[in-house]
Specification:
heterodimer; A: 374 residues; mainly alpha; ABC transporter involved in vitamin B12 uptake, BtuC; two-stranded antiparallel ribbon; 66% helix; B: 283 residues; alpha/beta; Rossmann fold; six-stranded mixed beta sheet; four-stranded antiparallel beta sheet; 12 strands
Chain lengths: 374, 283
């Protein structure tokens, strides 16, 4: 009966007869992303019916809503890790605006190569994240307040620097700098273009009048989104650092008493959110060819919505990166779905708020269930 | 017995917080394979004493010797490294995390190399299940959240974790105070087992009935001072209880209880006779 009688041989321990076979459903119910998965299926089914024949689910339409989801998903992934680690970052949106300016001004106004400007932006973001993390650690203030301060500081810096150096708040003409820049190439264009051309030649996707496929490839933002989600999931589920994130968010004091470097974990998470905001900014700047000081407005709140819909607890210690990705996907589906179905887009925010409340209620319910699953 | 070097020893330790003398001139020795029970009422200085032992506080006077060597701990982490594991009342457990994740929190076993270094979940789950099995707790699924365990089981996870990670001195802060009879007995059995494994155990409690069966010696604290250390063979359960709570207080409590009982029976008598007793029946 006792499985510890022979520790060497029980690697292939016989199935303990006292273990009840836990059904797949019961197991799934204890995962944080379940609600988001159900929500995704629901929203998808709704728009497949409501938006049938509108082009939302043609290849071009799919790429459209995936691109919306991808941009949000990139920052939501980082926000998810941070929220699981027990903190918020409200400065993400402003960091997007500032990072855009930091890329555009040196490149356009001072002739820096684009890669150098991008590295400058990433360095500044890392510094902002480091300051955020240290302020939260050292002062013991809630991260809500500290990063709310930085929401205004960074936005103000973006506008101030931009006006001071260029006299404008918009900087365009970045497209001219992209060709030939190895680093910028990571943030612009599409991948698998050959595959899409081949699929068009097979008649699987529609072509335009010139014989080119209507969708020429997968936007690079979607690749970033999937890669970051996969990376974050790996970190959370498989690495000691992931365990430290859960522990720091679950109970920082208990974690510290067990030898988890809570401060270092939190600083690195704040740096990751700022860096993810910069990735967002890079993609946006390369895509639109311009930077604008008001870019990224309210993105921090959208990221938090995606994370919460994805099943994370606002109090920390529980959540998933896959959930955040699904939250972002729901976001993209609804935003584009409302556009395609012709509903006045004014209603988008109403829907978003309702979604958030439903998700939180559902999550609380599920967490109670998980604690009862004896 | 006194020839052996004690595993842990407090020599004339005092701790002052400003003008408050929380501990004064305490000397305690615990050998390996021995359970020392620290008894004392609220405010006796039990918590200050264990916090001093576990590195949270530094003693104002006196010193702590570990295996004969003077030890000064800068933080709980240093004490932990030296082999002094403290299971505090809040257990350092995170309810939403799995048993395995809690068990290995901060000390995860890994496989792989460089960026592919990852937690060895198979090994971790097996060890967690095995260590819990050793103390007679049958964990069906080590990936279930700690929040689904009962209080006694949680306490055992915390103790099992401390023992597994090589504690030589185990300090338990009121491990049975919030537990039912059955759960407390699980924890007490485990304390006896830790002693058999050669650990020096310091067991803080104010429940003599929990302390007496497992303890080898008792140290009684009162108002920051020590009332002395007694071997189990030299003292009875009633004597311990008397010293701890102050015999006089218990006697007066006894008298009060007798008074309640008397008035209860009087009232019952009056009820059966069908006459409502006057309000001041008991006086």
């Amino acid at each position: 009966m006792k499985s510890n009688a022979s520790p060497q041989t029980d690697a292939v321990a016989p199935q303990d007869e006292r273990i009840q076979k836990v059904s797949f459903w019961k197991r799934a119910l204890s995962r944080p992303e379940l609600g988001a998965l159900a929500g995704t299926v629901l929203v998808l089914a709704f728009f497949i019916v409501a938006a049938s024949g509108t082009g939302m689910f043609t290849p071009a339409g799919i790429v459209n809503f995936l691109e919306v989801a991808a941009q949000l998903g990139i920052i939501a992934t980082a926000a998810a890790l941070l929220m699981i680690g027990g903190e918020f970052d409200l400065s993400i949106g402003s960091m997007i605006g500032l990072a855009g300016i930091l890329i555009a001004i040196p490149a356009v106004e001072y002739g820096w190569p684009l890669w150098a400007a991008i590295i400058l932006a990433f360095s500044c973001a890392a510094l902002v994240g480091w300051i955020n993390g240290n302020l939260v650690n050292k002062t013991g203030l809630p991260s809500f307040i500290v990063t709310l301060g930085f929401l205004f500081i960074l936005r103000g810096l973006a506008i101030g620097i931009s006006r001071l150096l260029t006299g404008r708040t918009q900087i365009g003409g970045i497209h001219d700098h992209i060709p030939g820049d190895w680093f910028a190439a990571l943030f612009s264009g599409e991948v698998a273009t050959g595959l899409f051309a081949w699929m068009a030649s097979q008649g699987w996707i529609a072509t335009n009048f010139a014989g080119n496929p209507v969708v020429t490839g997968i936007p690079v933002s979607i690749v970033w989104w999937l890669a970051l989600t996969a990376l974050a999931t790996w970190v959370l589920l498989c690495t000691p650092y992931g365990n430290w994130i859960f522990a720091s968010g679950g109970d920082a004091n208990a974690a510290r008493n067990s030898g988890v470097p809570v401060h270092r974990v939190k600083i690195s998470l704040f740096m990751f959110t700022a860096l993810s905001a910069t990735i967002f900014a890079c993609l946006q700047v390369m895509d639109t060819g311009s930077a604008d000081t008001i870019r990224g407005l309210l993105k921090e709140l959208e990221a938090i919505i995606a994370v919460v819909i994805g099943g994370a607890l606002l109090t920390g210690g529980y959540g998933s990166a896959i959930g955040a990705a699904l939250g972002a996907l729901i976001f993209g589906l609804v935003q584009m779905g409302i556009f395609y179905t012709g509903v006045n887009t004014d209603w988008f925010q109403v829907f978003l708020g309702v979604m958030l409340l439903v998700a939180v209620l559902f999550n609380n319910f599920m967490r109670k269930k998980a604690m009862e699953a004896k | 017995m006194s020839e052996r070097t004690p595993m842990i020893e407090m020599c004339n330790v005092s701790k002052h917080f400003g003008s408050v003398i929380a501990l004064s001139d305490i000397s305690v020795q615990v050998h390996s394979g021995e359970v020392m029970c620290l008894l004392g009422d609220n405010g006796a200085g039990k918590s200050t004493l264990i916090k001093t032992l576990s590195g949270v506080h530094r003693p104002t006077h006196g010193e702590i010797r570990l295996n004969g060597e003077p030890a000064r701990f800068k933080s709980p982490a240093y004490a932990l490294d030296a082999g002094i594991a403290t299971v505090f009342q809040d257990l350092a457990m995170i309810p939403l995390m799995s048993i395995t994740r809690n068990f290995f929190m901060g000390r995860e076993p890994t496989v792989g190399w460089g960026p592919l270094k990852r937690i060895d979940w198979k090994l971790a789950d097996r060890i967690a299940k095995q260590e819990m099995g050793k103390i007679g707790i049958d964990v069906r699924d080590p990936s279930q959240p700690v929040g689904t365990l009962s209080g006694g089981e949680r306490q055992c996870v915390a103790i099992a974790r401390a023992v597994y990670f090589g504690a030589k001195v185990l300090i338990l802060d009121e491990p049975t105070s919030a537990l039912g009879v059955k759960q407390a007995s699980v924890v007490l059995r485990y304390i006896a087992k830790a002693r058999a494994d050669g650990l020096a155990v310091i067991f803080i409690t104010h429940n003599v009935h929990h302390a007496y069966p497992v303890a080898d010696a008792f140290t009684l604290l009162k108002r920051g001072g020590s009332l002395g250390t007694f071997r189990k063979e030299d003292i009875t359960r009633e004597e311990v209880l008397n010293m701890m709570a102050g015999g006089a207080e218990l006697e007066s409590l006894d008298a009060e209880l007798a008074e309640f009982q008397r008035s209860d029976t009087e009232r019952a008598d009056a009820d059966t006779s069908g006459v409502r007793p006057p309000l001041a029946a008991g006086q």
